[in-house]
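Worked example 2:
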Amino acid sequence: MAKKLLHPIDSAEYSAENGLLDRRLFLRGSALLGSMMGYGVAQEVAAEPLVVQPWMQHPGPFPRPYDAPSRFESEVIRRGEPSSNKIPELGTVRTPIHQLTGTMTPNGLHYVRVHTGVPDIDPAQHRLLIHGMVKRPLVFDVESLSRYPIESRIHFLECGGNSELIYDEHPAQVGVQRLHGQVSCAEWGGVPLSILMDEAGVDPRGKWIIAEGADACGLTRSIPMEKIMKDAMIALYQNGERLRPSNGYPMRLFLPGYEGNMNIKHVRRIKVIDSPHQSRDETMRYSMMRTGGISTQFNCVMEAKSVITQPAPELKMKGPGLYQISGLAWSGYGHVRRVDISADGGKTWAQADLQQPVRDLALTRFRLPWHWDGRPALLQSRVTDNTGYVQPTRADMIARRGIWANYHGNCITTWAIDANGEVKHVYA
């Protein structure tokens, strides 16, 4: 039998069915909140001294030159696997978004997609060539780029294939890390590419570029010149330190809001052209198959999306009581305007609180208090961005794209909570 709350919840505190509470409850710091939080969480004890633990009885070691997480956090790691064709150099490792809070992703946990492994590039030997339809072809090394004004911007990066399992006929029985973990957010530091393009002198007929990476596969993608001149950068830094090798060292092309594969890592060549190049990587891969054998190319912008990360299939509920539903939302079109949460499969919705500041083209954390009474529930989140775009249901997404699209899976995700607190991915 479920325990009774220490303080009853007034009906006015609820904002939707199945236990969703008013989003401002966590902001009020009321006696009600304190008594509710104590339910099933805090342990009531007598006024006795705390135990002196072993680590308090002797000095610890001196800090390492480059620090690492506590050994007790050894399970907070990226997880992934090589591709299905068993080629070890091709695959993905995903961010543990269910084990993080806030919006920024540590460099060591940033998701990575590789096509031919991670190259070991000597920065002193690396060069970036800008050529093609320009007045002055130019070559830059890392040192020369570092002399230009460096800008820092906080943006998300998401793989175009993130959430591809959402297209499967039956809901994949995996956790949120496997389903949605190819998204991360960081502070990127680098040189606006428009400065370099202006220096090279772009021919007005040059409406596209082809960008090429220095990895073994020479990944190449065509990108509209409009995007290049708007907000593209040659990134040298990530979260204040030099790029990690798996994320593009010593320099990468960064395109805020565009699908990850277009953000060419280890970029070595940018050629100005008058039309898309139709490279292997934008014909054989990263095109969206439609019904009838038709495919669409250059689906550049990652549409608005949200996902509840706590609770999630990896995190079993610990019994009835007060919980905080938390998750991430983002949009490649702009910024998150609001996120709504449902605990009854989309029948009723409550507005979540957004962690400030809400930035353009960046992850936004949302939260909502929830009184779970121990009965089955269906949790969903739905984002609306500043352009008015509303995250679609799965049925709407499939109707628009078909089941073979594979990329840009951004529909509403449903977590089913059973009476034992187990969390499962379902379609609703």
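The chain has a mean pLDDT of 91. Residues 79 and 93 are 5 Å apart (CA to CA).
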